[in-house]
Specification:
mainly alpha, elongated
């Protein structure tokens, strides 16, 4: 059987690196601070995501539109691709009414 190529990132030797970090008091201190910072941001992202989902639900219920449509509109604005998305919808509309 031929050997398959590995995909993705190469594996790191995390245990050896962690051992080096643990054995160096200054590295350990900065590592803990870095992890605490990441935890803070991850929690904030999750809280913001929950608020966003609740806001989308509110807009959906208020206007009777699907959450998917609202999310698509917001994503198009954020990515600055409103015109491109509108062109896609127009093309779909033309196809559905003409074909």
């Amino acid at each position: 059987m031929s050997e398959q190529k590995k995909r993705g990132r190469p594996e790191n030797n995390d245990n050896a690196v962690l051992t080096d970090i643990i054995n160096d008091k200054e590295k350990l201190k900065t590592f803990k601070e870095a992890v605490a910072n990441l935890v803070y941001h991850k929690r904030k992202i999750e809280a913001d995501t929950l608020i966003y989902k609740e806001d989308v639900t509110g807009v959906s219920e208020t206007y009777g539109l699907s959450k998917g449509l609202i999310n698509a509109k917001v994503a198009a604005i954020v990515k600055e691709k409103e015109s491109e998305e509108a062109d896609k919808l127009l093309t779909k509309h033309e196809m559905m009414t003409e074909v």
